[in-house]
Amino acid sequence: MATHIAERVNALRDYLQRNGLSAFIFPSTDPHQGEYVPEHWQTRKWISGFDGSAGTAVVTLSDAALWTDSRYFIAAAQQLEGTPFTLMKDGLPETPSITTWLTDQIENGKLKIEKEAEGCDLNLQSSIFNNNTVGVDGEVFTPAEIEELRSALGKAGILLRTDLDPAEELWTDRPPIPKNKVEIQPLEFAGESAESKIERVRQALCEQNADSILISQLDEIAWLLNMRGSDVHCNPVFVSYVLLTQDEVTLFIDSEKLDDSVKDYLKRIGVRVKPYGEIQTLSISPLKGEDKAQKASPLRGGLVGSLKSVKNPAEIAGFRRAMIRDGVAMVKFLRWLKPAVEAGKETELSIDRKLTALRAEQDLYRGLSFDTIAAYGPHGAIVHYEATPESDVVLEPKGLLLLDSGAQYQDGTTDITRTIALGPLTDEERLDYTLVLKGHIRLALTRFPDGISGTQIDALARYAMWQHGINYGHGTGHGVGSYLCVHEGPHQIRHTWKPAPLHAGMTVTNEPGIYRQGKHGVRIENTMLIIDGGETEFGRFLRLEPLTLCPIDLTPVLWDMMTPEEIAYLEAYHKKVYDALSPLLNKEDSQWLKVQCVAMPSQHI
Q: Largest alpha-carbon pair distance within the chain?
């Protein structure tokens, strides 16, 4: 593999010389800024060989480097070994930013390669010392990212070119843009017609003094038009753009993705169809009228996303149904798990397959909502660990298993994490588990004003662990789509500032965690629904209702650390789980669940 990467880098350097470039930047994104990137746009993986979900590769005429975060330091080091790429550990104080590194490489248009230039042919040396232009594929960057990059490079006299895609020429077996068929999401699940959503977006545009909006995020398009697809891994969306004006709606999509029923549907709701590629030639007319143009201002972020994030009654009902079916699958899995581990031979990958099979038995199952994280022991400390045949380990009847998983059902999307004691635990494992559980419950119990940011309640999930000098680096919660992306914004619960307000009808996860490198990881996650919490003289308040239905493992809990209020919450939650799931289980599964949910923690006090 390293040999192929070296050949690709050499071919790219020839391309750079021919196009007057001194470097090229390959991000991990596509034109639609999705979490999962279709293979066609996985150019960073193609040029570097690194297959993690996050990272940026940069190639100059003499050097190459790849930036990624701490989740992938180990994997990236292994995958880049023997290639021209140097690993840049993003987030460490000693690691330069991409623009700083490039500025250091290119000084007044000259690469700093005194040593590298020795032995180079005259043509290469000439290119090295005359080029001061960095290239990117402008389609896969946001306008804000382009401006930030152009500004940072410009301070060093470096130009930015955005109209090239070297992979188009050099990646000879490049996968095509996906062209899978799309389908209509029934109104019984969508809860609102596409025509109604379109009118709400138009009204929102008017409120922001705008005439039109170009929608590029695929989940927003799927939500707006009540359509779903299978172009993107784990996300039921389809590659397309939508241009919405006060008079027209145009869907840019390859027509072969549309069967006759979908074409008729689009015609019926007043949506024109144009080829996907025509978006490149799109020209939007300026606003009409001098006064209107003067009043117009840039759209505030998340216009469609903000509408989508508040779920309607049909979507909420769908979530509840999906969570019940998902809970049934989880209970069957958890009952099976410990005896299977004690019998031997079960691994991280094998239990992933088992849980997926149990979910696939449920009605309206449409696949996973993200790749399962089945992380045993030290692997649990790797926040986004995904087992591979090389990393897969046998589970033993001791220690902790962190299991983060979810499914796509046509009426809802699920996301749940349970950390499970497979046998005897250390005192440290029990302490960490208890602190995470306390954080999870404290956030779940909070009552907060309507419209505040998730950042303002994030500390509640961290308070107990902070008192022990412990913290975690990831966010505490994210929105969840309605048979859409499992990670949905614009709202979040996290320690860094995210101004998007919280409102009733939004979904949000509650998932604090503790991770000890080389030892274990703990995370407990439920998907929550933000509901009305009553009104006082100080305004409207909100609270959180758990949608996820699955018992929380109580065996690791240090009960003397738990407050009566926290224990009462566990009792109420487990009663809700048992009442909802037990009628749908066979006698053995129901009895197992009763032991988990009815023999409550109060007996330990």
A: 82
Q: How far apart are CA 190 and CA 226, in angstroms?
A: 7
Burial of 390 (0-12, 13-18, 19+ CB in 10 A): exposed
pLDDT for the residue numbered 70:
79
pLDDT at 600: 58
In CATH, the number for domain 183-309 is 3.40.350.10
* Beta-strand pair 64-68/86-89: parallel
Closest CA to 323 of 445, 480, 187: 480
Output the CA torsion sign for 354, 355, 357, 361: positive
**Dist CA 199 CA 429 (whole Å):** 53
How many angstroms separate the CA atoms of 169 and 93, rounded? 37
Distance (Å, rounded) from C-alpha 191 to C-alpha 119?
A: 68
Cα(292)–Cα(229) distance, integer angstroms: 38
For the beta sheet containing 400-405, the strands, ordered from the edge strand earlier in sequence to the opposite edge, are 373-376, 400-405, 416-421
Fold annotation for 313-599 = Creatine Amidinohydrolase (3.90.230)
In a 13 Å sphere around the CA of 87, the CA atoms on its Cβ side amount to 20
Residue extents of the structural domains in the chain: 2-170, 183-309, 313-599
Sign of CA dihedral 37, 43, 44, 46: positive
Q: How far apart (Å, rounded) are the C-alpha atoms in residues 334 and 600? A: 18
Burial class (CB in 10 A: 0-12, 13-18, 19+), 225: buried
Task: Write down the pTM of the prediction.
Answer: 0.91
Q: What is the pLDDT of residue 290?
A: 38
The CA-atom distances, in angstroms, between 48 and each of 81, 82, 162, 168 are 10, 11, 20, 16
Sheet holding 241-245, edge to edge: 212-215, 241-245, 249-252, 271-274
Please identify which residue in the block is written with the tokens 């995904």: 386
Same fold, 183-309 and 313-599: no
Please state, in angstroms and rounded to a whole number, the distance separating the CA atoms of residues 356 and 369.
Answer: 11
H/E segment holding residue 294: helix 290-295
The closest of 60, 241, 21, 30 to 141, measured between CA atoms, is 30
Supply the pLDDT for residue 6.
97
| The two structure tokens encoding residue 182 | 């799309």
Which residues of the chain fall below pLDDT 70? 108-131, 283-301, 599-605
339-375 pLDDT tens trace: 999 999 999 999 999 999 999 999 999 999 999 999 9
Q: Exposed, middle or buried: residue 388 (CB in 10 Å: 0-12, 13-18, 19+)? A: exposed
DSSP-derived letter for residue 502 is P
Its CATH architecture, for the domain 2-170, is: 3-Layer(aba) Sandwich (3.40)
Other CB atoms closer than 10 Å to residue 483's CB: what's the count?
A: 24
Find where tokens 């996860």 sit: 509
